[in-house]
Every structure is written in structure tokens, then in C-alpha cells.
Amino acid sequence: MNYIDDIYTRIDLCEIREFLLHGAPAEPAESRSSKEKIDEKEKAVLEYIRSKFTDENECEQIMDKVYAYASCCVDEYMKIGMQCGASIAVQLLSPGNSVLSSN
User: pLDDT by residue (tens digit) across 5-47?
Assistant: First the structure.
């Protein structure tokens, strides 16, 4: 197999995402579901906050702010990701694109 064929065997969206986000190869795929990963992180933050703030009302106020922040991040990163994806698609499909032209 030549090096060009090797490139096509390594195409993987997770690898591209990790490179763009972190400049590093992707970690090995986990077998846990997204829900399991999210639940684990939520449990850890809830336990930590409850250990620091024993007043239930105060704890709820803090968690409301944490959830609002996390929700805002999710919304904004989704918008950014969709815009980047659309921009890449337009660039790839535009006439005269040197990336797709065969030399």
C-alpha cells in the first residue's frame, strides 16, 4: 500500500475533531454511552458542590448557574461547529478547489 492509500485508511472524524480541538490524536474509543459519560461528570460535580455548600437552597442556586453555563456552552459550541462544518463543505465543493482537484 502506498502512502496515499494509507491516508484514506486513516480518515476518521474523531481524529479530525481531536486534532482541531486539542492538536493531538484521539484517545481510544470508549465503550460507554454519551449518557453514561455525562452522568459520571454530573455526579462528580454535584458531590463536590454539595460537600462545599451544605445549605440545600444555596446548592440549588449554584447548580442552576452551573447548568445555565453548561447549556450556553453547548449551544454556542454547536453553532460554531455547524458553521465550521458548513464552511468546510462550501470550500470543498466550490469550483476550482485545489484540495479536491487531482494533480
Answer: 777 776 777 777 777 777 777 777 778 898 999 999 999 999 9
- Please give the grid coordinates belonging to residue 77: 459550541
DSSP structural state of residue 27:
P
pLDDT at 56 over 70: yes
Cα distances (angstroms) measured from residue 40 to each of 52, 65, 70, 87: 19, 19, 15, 34
Q: How far is the C-alpha of 12 from the C-alpha of 22, rounded, in Å?
A: 15
Nearest in space to 27 (alpha carbons), one of 36, 35, 19: 19
Fill in the DSSP letter of residue 103: -
